[in-house]
Design goal:
Layout lengths: L20 H14 L3 H14 L3 H11 L1
Helix pairs in contact: 1-2
Length: about 70
């Protein structure tokens, strides 16, 4: 018999954002299209944006981590 395995959630910080309704609609539609949660989609979009910053901005953010 197969056993139920519940994946562990990643640790995270809760933040409240006020977003324009049209932006929320677009993100939700994208999440639905990709069969992802709204939260997972927002995380992916933010990560993509941070990975594609101008080099000077990336360097600055990296300097703040150390």
């Amino acid at each position: 018999m197969n056993k139920l395995k519940i994946p562990e959630n990643h640790s995270g910080i809760s933040k409240t954002l006020r977003l324009p309704e049209n932006l929320v609609d677009d993100v939700q539609n994208l999440a639905n299209l990709k069969n992802l949660s709204f939260n997972r989609t927002v995380i992916s979009l933010i990560q993509f944006s941070l990975n594609n910053l101008e080099e000077s901005d990336k360097t600055y953010l990296e300097s703040l981590r150390h």
